[in-house]
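S1.2 Input.
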Amino acid sequence: MNPAPEHTAAPPAPAADVSAERPAALPAPVPAPTLRRVSAPVRFAVRLSRLSAHALRGQRILQRHFPALSAAQQQQHIRDWSAQLLRLSGIALQVNGTPSQTPSLVAANHISWLDIFAINAVQPVRFVSKSEAASWPLIGPLVRGVGTLFIERQRAQDVVRVIHQMAQCLRQGHHVGVFPEGTTGYGHDLLPFHANLFQAACVGDCPATVQPVALFYADQRSGRFSRAAAYVGDETMVGSLWRMSAAAPLRVEVDYLAPLRAPTRRALTQQTRDAIAEHLHQRLRDSR
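S1.3 Output.
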C-alpha cells in the first residue's frame, strides 16, 4: 500500500552520477479512439472517486488490522491493495521474469506515480522516498504505514543514514526499492543513474544482490509504447489520471532482469543501468 509520490527517489549526487547517452527520440503517442476521448470525463470521475475510496480503505486496514498481521499477511495485503489500485486506474499488469526470493536491492526506471504500485503488486518492497510524502493528505498515512524509508533531500548527509537503514533492512530479509534516476522520465529511455544508494548492496556483511527492473507502459491492444502514464515535470496526479482516462487502454510491463553483484557501487550502478537500457531499447524495437 505504498503510494508513489512525485519523483520518489534518492537525492541527486553529481559526484556519483553515471552519465547517460543522448536520449532517443520520443516515440509518437498511440491515439485513443474518438469514442473513448468523448467518454473520458465520465471515466475520469469514476476513477477518481474509486481511487479516493480505495486510499481511505487502505488507511483503515493500516490502522485497525495491519499491526496484528504476520509479515507474510502484511505483504499479501500490500500486493492485493496495489493490484486493485492498478485495476481501478484502468491499468493491466504483465509480469516477465522472476523476482528474487533472497534480499535484494530492487532498482527500476521511473516513469509514473503508478510505478511503486506495479512493483508492489508483484513483490512488496520497502521503497526509499522523499520525507515530504509522509505528510501528504490521504497518501501520507499509507506511505508511513508500510515501512517506507524517508530521506531528507535538503540535507546532503542524510543519505548516509538512509544507506545504513537500507543495509539493515536487507540484512533482516527485506527487499528495498530505489529509482536511481532520481526523477521521472517518459519511459522510452533512461536518465543518468545516481550511485549513492547502491552503496547499501556493497556493505561487507550485506548479502544482497541488485535486481534491475524494467518498467514499460504500453497500449494494451497494439503493445506499442505509450507515454500516457508518464508523470513528468509539473504534472499532477489528477492531470495524469485525466490523460490516462482519455488514452487507449494501458498495461504496465514489469520485467525482472537477472540479479547483479559487483564490488563497488559505481560498477553496480553502471551494470544496472546497462541492463535496463538494453531491455527497454529491445522492447521498443520489438513494438515497432
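S1.4 Remarks. Strands lie at 17-18, 91-96, 104-108, 126-130, 149-151, 176-178, 193-194, 209-219, 250-256.
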